[in-house]
Design brief:
With 79 residues, the chain is an all-alpha fold. It has helices at 12-23, 30-43, 49-64. Helix 1 packs antiparallel against helix 2.
């Protein structure tokens, strides 16, 4: 019987970031930013190009939902 294998589109490291992001709701607070940053900093070097692009979408959504827009510069990778 033929067996097919299915591979995940994203790595386990990225899944950690994705699960965190989907578990929080706006308005996003400094606590959300700190936790996001801790995860993102730790996994960033291992992410594929596609995972980094998707993570940037999370960052954009985080910025859009901030409780205080001035906190955007506190998000890892935002200059």
């Amino acid at each position: 019987m033929p067996v097919s294998t299915v591979s995940s589109l994203y790595s386990g490291q990225f899944d950690t970031l994705r699960e965190f992001f989907y578990s929080i709701q706006p308005p996003y607070t400094l606590a959300h930013i700190r936790e996001f940053n801790a995860i993102y900093r730790r996994i960033y070097p291992q992410l594929s190009r596609e995972e980094k692009r998707r993570a940037e979408e999370f960052v954009d959504a985080l910025i859009a939902g901030l409780e205080n827009p001035e906190w955007a510069s506190k998000i890892f990778g935002v200059v």
